[in-house]
Amino acid sequence: MIDVVVIEDDRELLDSLSVLLNGTPNLHCSGAYTSCEAAIKNLEFDLPDVILLDIELPGMSGIQGIRKIKKILPDVEIIMLTVHEDNEFVFESLRNGASGYLVKNVTPANLLAAIQEVYEGGSPMSMHIARMVTRSFQKNPPEYPLTRREKEVLKKLCEGKSYQAIANELFISKTTVKFHIRNIYKILHVTNKGEAISKAKDDGVV
Amino acid sequence: MKFFHSRFWCSLFGFNPCFNFPLLIVCVLMVCSEIIGQEQWEGVRFDHLNVEQGLSQNSVRCILQDRQGFMWFGTYDGLNRYDGYEFKIYRNRPGDSLSIPHNSITSLFEDSSGILWVGTVKGLSCFDPVTEKFYRVDPNEVTSLCQDEDGNIWASRTGLSVFLAERQYVSQNFHLPWNSSGTNMEYFTSLLFQKPDILWLGNSNGTLFQFNTKQKQFLLFRKNLKIFSPGQDKRISSILEDRDGIIWLGTRGSGLVRYDPVADEFTYFTPDPQNSHSLSSSLINCIYEDHQGNLWIGSQNGLLVFDKKKKSFFRFKHRPGVPGSLSDDKILSIYQDKFGTYWIGTKGGGINKFNLKTVFFDYYLSAEEVRYNPSASKVWTFYEDRQRNLWVGTSGGLIRMVKKNKRLDHADFKLFPIRIDGPVNRSVRSICEDDSGNLWLALIRGGLAKFVKKSGKITYFVPDEGKLPCLTPNIFYVLFPIDQSNLWIGTNGCGLLNFNIKTGEFQNKWYRNSADKKRNGWIICIYRDKEGDFWLGTWKNGLIRFRQTKKDMIVYRHDVKDPFSLNNNTVFSILEDHRGNLWIGTYGGGLNKLDRRTGKFIFYTRKDGLPNDVIYGILEDDHGNLWMSTNKGLSCFNPETGQFLNFDVNDGLQGNEFNLGAYFKSADGTLFFGGNNGFNCFKPANMINEQPPEVVLTGFKKFGKSIKFDQSISSLKKIVVSYKDNFFTFQFAALHFKNPSKNKYAYKLEGFDKDWIFIGKKREASYTNLDPGKYFFRVKAANCDGIWNEKGLTIPLIIRPPFWQTYWFYLSVLIFILGGLLIVHKAHLRSQINQALLIERVRMNERQEIQKKISRDFHDELGHRLTKITLFGNLLSRELKDASNQSLFYLHKILYHSHSLFEETRDFIWQLDPQKDSLYEWVVHLKNFSDELFEQTEISFRIEGAMEEWDKIHLPLEWRMHLLRIFKEALHNILKHAQKCKNIILKVQCRNNLLEVILVDDGVGFEVNRVSNGEGLNNMIKRAQTIGGKLVISSEPNEGTKIRFFGKLPERRVDL
Predict the structure, then answer these.
(1) Residues 6+ apart with CB under 8 A from B422
(2) CATH superfamily of the domain spanning B694-804
(3) Where exactly are the structural domains of chain A?
(4) Which residues of A touch B (CB under 8 A)?
(5) Are strands B773-782 and B764-768 parallel, antiparallel or unpaired?
């Protein structure tokens, strides 16, 4: 049973999502909040495995929320809900600790599949995001440099190859590809940790 | 009674001879410039220049005048440069290699380029007058210098040296052959260059050599000239070639030697104690030929002039106590400068100088001289009788002067008092002689006196009372013999009388009736011209021309209306010059000249240069000049040039005031003028020195302090001072040595002074507070005879302005200001442009932002709604699990369309987003779409191409839209029909604005022509055409499909 908390300021959407989640066999919506603050208050009580977090929220923004949530529950997987995939906030949230993102009008099937995947350790990385990651690494060289494999995966992602294609080309499994992508994210998070901390200080989070 | 005459001469420095010596003899002789006789030298008086006047040392071994006009004197202790006023001394400065090498100067020479070669006891050096530095050429002694035709300088010493002009005066030395090198034989003491290539050399042993300058060979010419005087010194001290080609040798011991090269004859001149016209010493130091060709010899015992015709010598000797005599008998050097002044250097006596063209006034009967009978000093008339004795009529009687040796200064004086009755002396106003040799005297209030020379007996003649129609018939002024028996008498009050010598009768010749009985015809002077006309000068009755018969009488009087009439009616003197002009001296009207043809008079007064307008007497000298006596001295007038040269008591005259009637010219050309203090007589040479002087700058002072320049001041080309030096002084001198203290100056600063400023003898001009700028300082000068160098000296003077007044400053300030303005203008312009641009950009951005925001908001909202629709739909579908298929079908349709709607809106928004206008964004968008589309399939989608470049490639809006539609359609087709399709490849390439997009799949393929979705394909092709490109669809069954688009991207417009 995967516990999911949804943070979405649109009440209607929030309710429908929670109904959807609860109607899905292995999912359970343990909390539905319209703001980060409300969610964070109840975080330790809700103990979600996955959080669906709307990027655009009133009050505390999604990104600030990520940091705060990660402080309380470092291992929770956060999926950003966004209308635009190429929203700059997407990359920002990924850098700050989100594990993935979803475009809002995704089919419920996809939504459920994404939650499942994230719970299992996968992280989506589109060509676009891969490019942004590469650029970010170029600007701020990661503290823990990427392994050769990871570099290759990242490169192929930038070229727009599907996970399957990458798996085929590198003679690894799709799972391994996802695993590499995960690591890349982790490094992204770590790299930004220092930044995150300083930023957190500014935001008064820490 | 014995009378003594005093000697006076025209002195440069105005110092009077001491009157303490009653035995002082005044001797004046005028000398002509030609060689006439020895008399010309008699009158020479020397001026002295020695250490007291600034000379460095009194033994002068060599003298030279340089091309500028300065005089150079080389002494035993220093080299001197003289400008007529001051000496500039050059001495050796130890440690200064640019100073003269030694102070004992042996020889001086100016070469053709103006360099002064100075030979000293310790070497030869060159003096550059411009830099004023001595450049040492050679360290050995030089005895004599000369220059050959090629400009090379030859120097005699122990051996002979030449300094080659073409090789920067590198020297070559020559020695005697015949084993004589280095011996005394080779010690050459004199040198002469004879054209074209012979050098004459005399050595210290009395041997004469010749050296050929071309062949460079010595020739022993004459060994051991005859020695007449014992002594070790046998040297040949001087060699000269005169204008006749004769070689003269001055020797020490053998006297003067003359060598005639044509006849190859030697002639020796040695002293003969018996003959006062022989050489005075056998020790000759120097020989010189002057401009007239006279040969001058400087010996150990006086200065001598040789008369080549008579072969006799005139000797100048030092006479102790006589101020104008030679200062020392040991003569070392002789030189005549270009103005004719002679310079004599002596050993220990300094320099003697004289100029022939000077007037020396002899002076007799001064009050001092005749103090036993003071009225004898008042001189009224002169007469020279047939025996050439001089008779002087004075207020103290008649004086007879009998010359001794034809010289007046050795004359015997005898005074004959004229006392008719009682002790009162009658003034003798005129003297003449009859055929018998008796003298007739005109007396004031005494009538006529007859004087018998031998006996001294005097007889008096007076007209009988009442016989003549005048009150006082015995005031006789002037006598004029007419013929053997008749004598005319000019009287005061009785007009003109005729006296018959034989009968003793007086007759009235002419008189004029006047209301004033006392002044009835006063005839002051009588003159007879060459044509025989008589001219009478009267008191206030004008000038009368008189022929023997009264009928032919013309009276010239002053007519106020006629400017060409006689300008004064009292005529004191009349003279006809050798050209026939008649000159009239008047009482206050100056000098009149009558043109006999036209009868017109012109006159000269003080304005024209006369010292005074009362002309007592006029005489013409042998050179055509007129001499006049006035109340302010004597004046010499040159009728051709119109120039007056004036002399006053300071020049040696008896006084400034002369007496009426006291003028006389003797047969030998001597002029006599008398006054109240004796008389002067002189024989003028053509003594006006026609040469104008050179003018040089001798100093420049700032605030009274002399400034030293890099060059000699006289060679400066310009003077530059700054505006701060606002008080400066020019010092200058005229280089004319006849009588430098009488040189006159005038200066003018062009640019400041309007006219010339005449300053007389002063030699300085100062200026203060001048404005900055360029001026020309001009000086002109006249020599002592009044000849002006009108051109004079011009030197530019530049006063540098303070920098804030210079053109550069103004210009730079102007440029600065202009530049500033320009910059400001440009900046303003730029800022305006920038501002406009900024505003535009901001507006543009704003527009874009608003656009984006609107579209974003719309999209978000739409997305939001659709999400909910989908969600609800999903939830509904769950609820309707058991519902009929139809319901589910309709629900799915609703969901499907809402989804498409969302997608299309998304596309639409994407198209509009200006930030999404790159090729890359388009590919990404297509890929996202494809990923979604093929999500559930196994088909892999791959992109090929240089992705890095796609960011930069801009796709216009139309292209984005149409290309998207085309390839979305294609992808849809693949999804629909591509069974067995595993791979889709999207190749994108853009080169030179040519875009190529190829979609390849490995699906089933189809026949292009026969296709079910022909509409769709055609639309795709049409879309491609709309944007100017082309779409090619190629497919083969089982071969996959290839859709290729290519087109030229339009030129991208530059956006702000």
Answers:
(1) none
(2) Immunoglobulins (2.60.40.10)
(3) 2-120, 127-203
(4) 10, 12-13, 16-17, 19-20, 23, 83-86, 103-108, 110, 126-128, 158-162, 164-165
(5) unpaired
Homologous superfamily (CATH) of A2-120 is: Response regulator (3.40.50.2300)
**Residues B213-222: tens digit of each pLDDT:** 888 888 777 6
Residue of A10, A12, A107, A154 for testing the chain B interface, max B β-carbons within 10 Å: A107
Q: Cβ separation of B874 and A13 shorter than 8 Å?
A: no
- Size of chain B, expressed as the number of residues it contains: 1056
pLDDT digits (tens, 9 = 90+) for A84-126: 666 677 778 887 888 888 777 677 777 888 888 888 877 777 7
Are A165 and B902 a contacting pair at CB < 8 A? no
Tell me if B870 and A107 make a contact (CB, 8 A cut-off). yes
Min Cα distance B809 → chain A (Å) is 57
**Amino acid type, B134:** F
Cβ of B864 and A159 within 8 Å?
Answer: no
pTM: 0.50
How close does chain B come to A115, measured CA to CA in Å? Answer: 16
Rg (CA), chain B: 61
Instruction: Decide if pLDDT at A79 tops 80.
Output: yes
Handedness of CA B102, B104, B110, B111 (dihedral sign): negative
What is the CATH number that goes with domain B931-1056? 3.30.565.10
The predicted pLDDT at position B963 comes to: 87
A105 vs B856, B902, B940: nearest CB? B902
The owner of tokens 């303003």 is: B828
**Residue A93: its pLDDT value, please?**
81
- CB contact at 8 A, B851 and B915: no
Average pLDDT over residues B424-442: 88
Q: How far apart are CA A126 and CA B943, in angstroms?
A: 13
Tell me the residue length of chain A: 206
Q: Which residue has the higher pLDDT, B831 or A106?
A: B831
CB contact (8 A) between residue B872 and residue A16: yes
User: Does domain A127-203 correspond to CATH entry 1.10.10.10?
Assistant: yes
Strand order in the sheet with B331-336: B47-49, B351-355, B341-346, B331-336
CB B46 within 8 A of CB B303: no
Residue A172 or B614, more confident = B614
Chain B residues at the A interface, defined by Cβ less than 8 Å, are: 856, 859-860, 863-864, 866-868, 870-872, 874-875, 878, 899, 902, 923-924, 927-928, 931, 935, 938, 940-943, 947
Q: Where are the domains of chain B?
A: 694-804, 806-916, 931-1056
Give which of B714, B743, B755, B744 is closest to B731, Cα–Cα.
B714
Shortest Cα distance, chain B CAs vs residue A84, angstroms: 8
Q: How far apart are the C-alpha atoms of B171 and B167, rounded to whole Å?
A: 9
The pLDDT tens digits for B934-944 are 777 777 777 88
- Determine the straight-line distance between the first and last CA of chain B, rounded to whole angstroms: 134
Residue A206 predicted with pLDDT over 50? no
- The residue with greater pLDDT, A72 or B858, is A72
Residue of chain B minimizing CA distance to A8 = B864
Which of B867, B881, B982, B987 to mutate against chain A (most A CBs within 10 Å)?
Answer: B867
Closest to B863 (Cβ–Cβ): which among A105, A127, A159? A105
**For residues B535 and B566, is the Cβ–Cβ distance under 8 A?**
no
Q: In sequence order, what are the residues at sequence separation of 6 or more whose Cβ sits closer than 8 angstroms to the Cβ of residue B78? A: B56, B57, B89, B90, B91, B103, B105
Phi/psi for B10 (5° steps) reads -75, 105
**Which residues from B are below 8 Å from A20, CB to CB?**
871, 874-875
Q: What angle do CA B606, B610, B614 make, to 5 degrees?
A: 85
- DSSP one-letter code for B177: S
